[in-house]
Recover the amino acids of this structure.
């Protein structure tokens, strides 16, 4: 495998196929880990040659966490720098299942961001036909609630305002739990709604529209 690497073949999937045909019985993860070490050693050697003999060696790259990989895949491509694009290319190169998941995840993110409902059915078929069980389950769940999902990628409406009110109520509950009576909690919950429809003066609320607040 080292000879093939030195000859210019740096694709883990291709190397795995070649050595398997020659009798290798190990798992793909062994080849992927070996090619990762070879790639790291080669990059460090290149850095030494570029920096000169007296230069300080660069710090080893931090391992990519699941959260970091998710951020890297779903971030808009225009916002990635060269190092991040290189890291994403390496992620596609030596991880078979991840290489299949990356375009599916990116296409779904673009579908939602750009609101392309005409692409939803095609994406669902691709996800269900993939070898990735998590994406298969996700796509089947979307199909079970197809009408709502289709509306979500078609219409401009969202549940954002409702979620904001829920978060505010939870915050008030946490702040006042065991510290105040229901009357104060009621005032804190209702007052922002009133102020948005009524102008506030010191000591009282004055009407600014034709609406009448409910007690």
């Amino acid at each position: 495998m080292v000879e093939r690497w030195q000859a210019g073949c740096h694709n883990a999937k291709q190397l795995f196929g070649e050595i398997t045909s020659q009798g290798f019985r190990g798992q793909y993860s062994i080849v992927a880990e070996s090619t990762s070490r070879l790639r790291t050693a080669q990059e460090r050697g290149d850095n030494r040659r570029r920096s000169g003999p007296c230069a300080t060696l660069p710090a080893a790259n931090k391992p990519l966490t699941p959260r970091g990989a998710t951020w890297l895949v779903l971030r808009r491509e225009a916002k990635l720098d060269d190092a991040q694009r290189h890291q994403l290319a390496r992620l596609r190169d030596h991880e078979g299942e991840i290489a299949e998941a990356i375009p599916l995840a990116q296409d779904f993110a673009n579908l939602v961001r750009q609101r392309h409902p005409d692409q939803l059915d095609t994406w669902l078929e691709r996800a269900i036909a993939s070898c990735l069980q998590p994406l298969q389950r996700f796509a089947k769940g979307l199909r079970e609630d197809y009408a709502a999902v289709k509306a979500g990628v078609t219409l401009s409406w969202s549940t954002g305002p409702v979620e904001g009110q829920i978060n505010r109520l939870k915050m008030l509950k946490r702040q006042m739990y065991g510290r105040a009576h229901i009357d104060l909690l009621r005032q804190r919950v209702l007052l922002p709604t009133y102020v948005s429809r009524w102008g506030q003066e010191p000591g009282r609320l004055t009407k600014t529209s034709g609406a009448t607040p409910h007690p």
Q: What stands out?
A: The first helix runs from residue 2 to 6.
